[in-house]
Amino acid sequence: MTEKLTPEQFRETASRIEAEVGKVIVGQARVVRRVLTSILAGGHVLLEGVPGLGKTMLIRTLGQALDLKFSRIQFTPDLMPADIVGTEILGEEDGKRQFRFRSGPVFANLVLADEINRATPKTQSALLEAMQEGSVTVAQKTYTLEEPFFVLATQNPLEMEGTYPLPEAQLDRFFFKVNVELPDLQELSEILNRTTGEETPTAGKAASGADILRMRELARSVPAASHVNEYISRLVLATHPVSELASPLVRQYVRYGASPRGGQALMLGARVTALLAGRYNVAFEDIHTVARAALRHRILLNFDGLAEGIRTDEVILELVESLPKES
Q1: What's the rounded Cα separation, in Å, for the pair 287 and 271?
Q2: Lowest mean pLDDT among 34-43, 106-115, 178-187, 246-255
Q3: Spatial distance between the Cα atoms of 37 and 41, rounded to a whole number of angstroms
Q4: If one looks up domain 222-322 in CATH, what number appears?
Q5: In the CATH scheme, what is the code of domain 7-212?
Q6: Residue 241 has what pLDDT?
Q7: Is there a common fold for 7-212 and 222-322?
Q8: Which residue has the higher pLDDT, 59 or 9?
Q9: CA of 137: how far to CAs of 73, 140, 169, 203, 294, in Å?
């Protein structure tokens, strides 16, 4: 039987991963922490930002820091579902012609879905079963994906040309949505120093797949008091305009609120955040830390909200500040 990790070992391993990523990625500490939190909770991540901000480089660097099988899928308008999950091909074996399955790039531990919203909805949907069930079904046969399995996807803002919005069912399967912002002056100068010199920095191995699974197991064992559990439930319900807990912004500008998956992301994300902060219990501050990443893509604005330029982050911030911690 595998020995369980201690909270100290959990933090040490997470720090090593962040340190190795930091050798390549300049700044973006918040983005790195959110992506790592999602991985340690067993969830998938959607990174959004304009081209050139290092989204793909961040995920590739994580693949270097984690001793996992890594694959990259470049999503394009002509990409087909079979290009992702694989297909059956006709071959000859022992003198007989028969079909055999050739697996696609989704059969890896860490899958980079680059510019996922440049593919058509038909192709985007090829990831749904893999992300939710951890399996792929081809020709009425189901193939189980090896654990750990994570999809780290990047997307460009929808106002950019040649993009297809992800459907709600696809968005809901992402544990976190993380916005990647422009670097500041000092960070940009350091990026230029690191990437235009004679040597290109690389990340070393900091953790294995077995380490990630053990860290995930420890994170799920972090206790959460009943009032913390109830607060998460009320926070999720408060994102729905028909709820009596809804804030003024929600009632005025939100069409649909978060699903129960949003509550699961809040709880698991808060548990990992507590461990990273050196505590073995979930506090309200842990929930607030991950609230925007867990809920921003699960709240759909109505026409008025879109017309007024309301951001879901504003809605979540109002909920966090106004919702009482005790019912």
Answers
A1: 9
A2: 178-187
A3: 6
A4: 1.10.8.80
A5: 3.40.50.300
A6: 92
A7: no
A8: 9
A9: 19, 6, 18, 35, 28
